[in-house]
């Protein structure tokens, strides 16, 4: 209430505001606990969103844990890597549907590129799309089409290694742990330099093109979820990305080629999770505001007069002034005296009794009638000193009223 005793908010509006606040708190709590799960893109492909065996979610999590600046891009990734950052094109074969744009269009102005060749094609589990139901090897011819797409002269080989392959590469201290590796045979060219190889082929190579340097990884099992934790693969993967990045600022993973292209749009983002929750909250607040102001449209009601005519306003104003001045106890004593005078009019006392003797005479009459000394108790309570609450004064005034009514009209 305000100073004038009027309600600032109506009861329904207050209940709605409290309910909205509680709902917002619950939504914020649930989102803080499960928001990461809701924000994931359900997929079983080779994308960084994928937690399947051939996905790369574990690699992104590892790089984040190492405080390496990682950007998962869904639009114009090459432009985001134009400042010297590393653009990662992880298995651009995707799901085998459609044709890739030209390598120049995908890489854009990026000067450093890590190209991870595809090896596996997966089919999602019908019961859980985020997991794999079946995987098959990509045909070597399809992998070589990706090499041709990137302008790298090489052939794909998949040897069966029964013994330790004897990896050679001065740039890397850790050796990979692979089951059946997918390797390359590079054509004789000054542009291609093997960085990690064995007698059967090359695993990592560096290809220098005009205005661009491409690091080539032939086997994605080194980076994928199912292979990253084997042996020293995680250490070798981080070493590879660090060397390929050079002095770059970030590692940009392109997801547009996996079918996750998303053109930036302010309105589109507002209606996508999680910003859609903010929009819903704003709409709810707007509806509450309209609901609270619906009764205030139209011509304003005239204000009540400052001073009203009639006895009611005079009595209420006088009572408020007496209460403000602390005269409630004095008024209660006068009310008791008035009640006793009305009782004396209903039962006239014998002659010669003055105002001082009247209370004692009324008490004697009350005892004769079997009243039990109620008037004496009322006089004692009214004459008591000390501060008293308004509720106690009102109850005492009610008892005086009942005593007067019973004396004059009977029980």
Give a written overview of the molecule.
- With 411 residues, this protein is α/β, with parallel strands linked by helices.
- The chain folds into 3 domains: 11-32 and 273-295; 40-270, no CATH class; 311-409, no CATH class.
- Helix content is 41%, strand content 14%.
- It is built from 13 helices and 11 strands.
- It has helices spanning 11-38, 57-65, 77-80, 103-107, 140-150, 233-245, 266-270, 275-293, 311-324, 328-346, 358-368, 374-383, 390-409; strands at 70-73, 86-90, 112-116, 120-124, 132-137, 154-157, 183-186, 192-198, 201-209, 212-217, 251-254.
- The strands form 3 sheets. Strands 1-11-2-3-10-9-8 form a 7-stranded mixed beta sheet. Strands 4-5 form a two-stranded antiparallel sheet. A two-stranded antiparallel sheet has the order 6-7.
- Strand 8 and strand 9 form a beta hairpin.
- Helix 1 runs antiparallel to helix 8 (275-293) and helix 10 (328-346) runs parallel beside helix 13.
- The chain is rod-shaped.
């Amino acid at each position: 209430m305000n100073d004038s005793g009027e309600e600032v908010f109506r009861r329904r509006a207050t209940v709605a505001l409290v309910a909205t606040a509680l709902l917002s708190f619950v939504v914020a709590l649930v989102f803080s606990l499960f928001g990461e799960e809701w924000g994931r893109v359900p997929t079983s492909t080779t994308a960084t969103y994928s937690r399947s065996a051939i996905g790369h979610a574990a690699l992104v999590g590892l790089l984040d844990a190492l405080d390496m600046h990682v950007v998962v891009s869904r639009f114009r990734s090459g432009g985001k890597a134009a400042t010297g950052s590393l653009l990662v094109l992880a298995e651009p074969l995707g799901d085998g549907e459609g044709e890739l744009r030209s390598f120049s269009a995908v890489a854009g102005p990026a000067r450093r590129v890590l190209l991870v060749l595809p090896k596996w094609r997966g089919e999602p589990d019908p019961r859980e799309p985020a997991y794999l139901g079946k995987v098959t090897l990509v045909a070597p011819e399809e992998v070589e089409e990706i090499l041709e797409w990137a302008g790298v002269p090489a052939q794909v080989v998949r040897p069966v290694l029964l013994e330790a392959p004897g990896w050679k590469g001065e740039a890397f201290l850790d050796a990979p742990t692979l089951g059946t590796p997918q390797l390359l045979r590079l054509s004789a060219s000054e542009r291609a330099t093997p960085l990690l190889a064995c007698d059967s082929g090359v695993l990592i190579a560096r290809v220098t093109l005009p205005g661009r340097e491409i690091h080539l990884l032939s086997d994605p099992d080194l980076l994928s979820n199912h292979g990253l934790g084997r042996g020293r693969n995680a250490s070798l993967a981080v070493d590879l990305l660090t060397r390929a990045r050079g002095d770059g600022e970030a590692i940009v993973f392109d997801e547009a080629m996996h079918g996750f292209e998303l053109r930036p749009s302010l309105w589109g983002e507002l209606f996508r999770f999680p910003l859609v929750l903010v929009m819903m909250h704003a709409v709810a607040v707007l509806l509450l505001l309209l609901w609270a102001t619906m009764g205030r449209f139209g011509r304003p009601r005239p204000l009540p007069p400052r001073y009203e005519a009639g006895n009611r306003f005079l009595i209420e104003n006088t009572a408020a002034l007496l209460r403000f001045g602390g005269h409630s106890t004095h008024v209660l004593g006068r009310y008791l005296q008035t009640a006793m005078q009305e009782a004396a009019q209903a039962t006239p006392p014998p002659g010669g009794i003055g105002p001082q003797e009247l209370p004692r005479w009324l008490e004697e009459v009350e005892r004769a009638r079997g009243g039990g000394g109620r008037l004496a108790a009322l006089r004692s309570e009214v004459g008591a000193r000390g501060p008293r609450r308004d509720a106690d004064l009102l109850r005492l005034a009610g008892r005086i009223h009942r005593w007067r009514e019973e004396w004059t009209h009977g029980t």
